[in-house]
């Protein structure tokens, strides 16, 4: 099984909680961690912007990436949410097995 760590920025903790809880309840993710404070500097529509945001870390499998993208698009307030998936290589075999056992 190929494991993934999803990285998603959200406008606030409530949005991160809503998305994270939905992903776990639907068994698309084994776990979602909310990092509640991040300050972002980014270019949007030819302007440099800043915003306070939250980060949602999503423990999942490669099989669920497309469905997670669909759920995030439906629940997220941003026009273009930052959602990327990184491969999980190595690590605790028991933890990786736990992810696989808790993702549908």
Describe the structure.
With 104 residues, this protein is of the alpha+beta class. The chain has a single domain, classed as 2-Layer Sandwich (Alpha-Beta Plaits). The chain contains three helices and four strands, in the order βαββαβα. The protein has helices at residues 13-25, 65-75, 93-102, and strands at residues 3-10, 31-44, 47-61, 83-87. Helix 1 crosses helix 2 (65-75). The model has no long low-confidence stretch (mean pLDDT 97).
Record keyword descriptors for this entry.
single chain, 104 residues, alpha+beta, four-stranded antiparallel sheet, Alpha-Beta Plaits
Distance between the termini: 12 Å
**CATH fold description:** Alpha-Beta Plaits
What share of residues are in beta strands? Answer: 35-45%
Instruction: Please give the share of residues in helix.
Output: 25-40%
Structural class: alpha+beta
Radius of gyration: 14 Å
């Amino acid at each position: 099984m190929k494991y993934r760590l999803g990285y998603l920025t959200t406008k606030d903790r409530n949005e991160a909680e809503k998305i994270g809880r939905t992903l776990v309840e639907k068994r698309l993710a084994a776990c979602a961690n909310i990092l509640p404070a991040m300050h972002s500097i980014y270019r949007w529509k030819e302007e440099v912007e800043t915003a306070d945001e939250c980060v949602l870390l999503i423990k999942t499998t490669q099989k669920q990436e497309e469905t997670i993208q669909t759920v995030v698009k439906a629940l997220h307030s941003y026009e273009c949410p930052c959602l990327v998936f990184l491969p999980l290589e190595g690590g605790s075999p028991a933890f990786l097995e736990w992810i696989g056992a808790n993702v549908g």
